[in-house]
From TrEMBL:
Organism: Macrolepiota fuliginosa MF-IS2
Keywords: Signal
Protein name: RlpA-like protein double-psi beta-barrel domain-containing protein
Lineage of source species: Eukaryota, Fungi, Dikarya, Basidiomycota, Agaricomycotina
Region listing for Disordered, in residue ranges: 47-74
PANTHER family: PTHR31836, SRCR DOMAIN-CONTAINING PROTEIN-RELATED
Signal peptide positions (record): 1-19
Domain RlpA-like protein double-psi beta-barrel: 119-164
Highest taxon above the source species: Eukaryota
UniProt feature, compositional bias: Polar residues: 64-74
Length: 173
């Protein structure tokens, strides 16, 4: 056993000496000239970002347009909405278009329950009557600024038997 260890020790010594005796890759004069040079710093003009300040140190809240004119509105029976809230016919809620819901400022598209539009309130008006509702769902069949009301919210501004209103105006509150 000790003879095998001695042989391995001798073999590793021979390999080590052989590696030291082998010449390294020859590098030309050009390489030595480049390596010997000290890099000098080069000034780069970087425009400074404008500094914006907020009044009272508060964060800005994204706000969509303040008023929408003459948009269609419909009614449907609510249930579990895209905001993760189970709604009932008696709740004053509405669904916005999937186009508005998915593109709302601050929404990253990952979890609809975390959309900043959820819980936002609007006041909708139709022929002199108005209702305030919370946004709790998205409507796949709605155009960009259409609303889909719960039956009780729809009843506040028009007879539910009408089914569709063509001149509803609404504003964010």
């Amino acid at each position: 056993m000790s003879l095998a260890k001695a042989f391995l020790l001798f073999l590793s010594l021979v390999v080590s000496v052989s590696a030291l005796a082998t010449p390294h890759v020859h590098r030309g004069v050009h390489h030595r000239a480049l390596a010997g040079r000290v890099a000098s710093p080069v000034p780069v003009d970087v425009p400074a970002a404008p500094i914006r300040s907020r009044q009272n140190g508060k964060r800005c809240k994204p706000r969509p347009s303040s008023s929408v004119v003459a948009q269609p509105a419909t009614t449907s029976s609510p249930g579990l909405g895209a905001c993760g809230i189970t709604n009932h016919d008696t709740d004053h809620i509405a669904a916005v278009s999937h186009l508005l819901f998915d593109a709302f400022p601050g929404y990253n598209g990952a979890n609809p329950n975390q959309n900043p539009i959820c819980g936002r309130k609007i006041t909708a008006s139709y022929k002199g009557k108005s209702v305030t509702v919370a946004i709790t769902d998205r409507c796949e069949g709605c155009a960009l600024l259409d609303l889909d009301f719960s039956p009780s919210a729809f009843d506040q501004i028009a007879d539910p038997s009408i089914g569709r209103l063509d001149d509803v105006t609404w504003t964010w509150i």
